[in-house]
Amino acid sequence: MINRQLEPILRARLAVMAGVVLLGPRQVGKTTLARQLAAHWPAGALYLDLERPADRRRLDDADTYLRAQRGKLVVIDEIHRAPGLFDVLRGIIDDRRAAGDRHGHFLLLGSAAIELMRQASETLAGRVAYVDMAPLDVGETAPAGIDPARLWVRGGFPDSLLAASDADSLDWRRDFIRSYLERDVPMFAPRLPAETVGRLWTMLAHYQGGPLNLARLAASLGVSAPAVGRYVDLLADLRLVRRLPPWSGNLNKRLVKAPKIYIRDSGIVHALLELESLDQIVGHPVVGASYEGMVVENLIQAAGERRRAYYFRTQDGAEIDLIFDRGGMPELAVEIKRSSAPALDRGFSTACDALGIDERYVVYPGDQVFPLRHGAQAIPLAQMAARLHG
Q1: Per-residue model confidence as pLDDT tens digits over 232-257
Q2: Cβ–Cβ < 8 Å for 293, 235
Q3: DSSP code of 182?
Q4: Integer-rounded Cα radius of gyration of the chain
Q5: E strands within 4-147?
Q6: Residue 89 to residue 121: CA distance in whole angstroms
């Protein structure tokens, strides 16, 4: 079994809050993690899956039923299917808080972040915390002895990563993509054409790591730029794509202002492009961008909430693939090179000098740490993630 680094974070949040909303795409492991947590909850726990009719029937009189579970951790999966529950939960939480029982009541699981957070924020503001769950990352897979190349090829969804073969893994990811287009898009955005969203998803795989250009995508899809914006919003809400913002501090330079767009899981990138094996990926034009996206996602997950992530690019070519800042001040720069002998160009050093960043790294697919030009260090992904996590 692969231990999830999120488990102690969930326990810590539940120790101080009445509830936690756990957000993440389908099949990422939310239910497994919640069940593991519930199995060891000191006062016992109850698990309800609102996709099961029997569990929904238990909540016909939700207020009475949930009040009877006092002392237990109540896990409610697919909470977005019963938006009326939020008002009930607010009343129960407030009554228990008035009685001095202030934490560890509810763990709510859902896939659509914006809609779920909107529903929760309207009724549960100040009563619940929000935690994001991503696919498995190198900090979780390396201790289990999983090769980083396998994580890159298959992505971090557990069923994909742990499949018996690359072919089985690809089949799983094809089914995953199809289920989102046939089920989740109609559920969360019934007015958006699922076929067009699917075409956009594939286009984004080809444009992995590029600047988000709504007009260009709209022209290719034959729809309006605002429509493409709504499609991208949906994919971001479902935690399937990431818009990495540009750093835009007060510099006397012309900066690129468009966000970079990434499909968050490298295995999904490869499935959308019908790439099954490492050999096929290495021979495809997306290889560099795919590796970059995998590194970006892993490092952002490792950094957690303590740092915010950006990229930096000026109009004259100075560029940093990934910046982490703290309190609005950039403190760490990362360049990403899929090469066993990475080399830096002058643009990276120029950008770091302009931002006053001394901590400079180049993440590469090797296993040694060694110095490079311009005050940078080459470092493997797992070690870079450990530094950020620590």
Answers
A1: 998 998 899 999 999 887 666 677 78
A2: no
A3: I
A4: 22
A5: 19-23, 45-49, 73-77, 106-110, 128-132
A6: 12
